[in-house]
Automatic annotation (TrEMBL):
<protein>
    <submittedName>
        <fullName>Uncharacterized protein</fullName>
    </submittedName>
</protein>
Length: 120
């Protein structure tokens, strides 16, 4: 966000299924990758970081959710992790709420950018 509280840049990359960077109220950014990493695994990967004045990124935390489905009828399973350590869903949810969900700016902070499709 710039000095008057408006979002000044954002990123979306569809090369790896989907990837986006969202600014958070506390000045942190969250990069989310949603990736199919195998025939029976879908992952949601989150990196929290801050941009430094010189353009460098300082990574603060890594979080993930790996969802597994099985063709043999076995029950699906989900694995949660924070900074390389597996955690249960309650721990993950509390940390994600504190660091990401509660810090997302209201959608009114976003300004829609016109594309060629909008102008036609």
């Amino acid at each position: 966000m710039n000095g008057d509280g408006k979002l000044s840049c954002w990123n979306y990359d569809a090369v790896e299924t989907s990837c986006r960077d969202d600014p958070l109220k506390d000045g942190t950014m969250v990069r989310q990758y949603d990736v199919g990493t195998g025939p029976n695994r879908y992952s949601h990967l989150y990196t929290l970081y801050r941009c430094q004045a010189g353009g460098e990124m300082t990574e603060l935390s890594h979080m993930f959710i790996h969802e597994y489905t099985y063709c043999d009828g076995a029950a699906p399973s989900t694995i949660y992790g924070i900074d390389g350590e597996e955690v249960d869903e309650a721990v993950f949810s509390a940390r994600f709420e504190a660091l990401v969900t509660s810090q997302l700016p209201d959608r009114s902070a976003w300004t829609r950018v016109q594309t060629g499709a909008d102008m036609g």
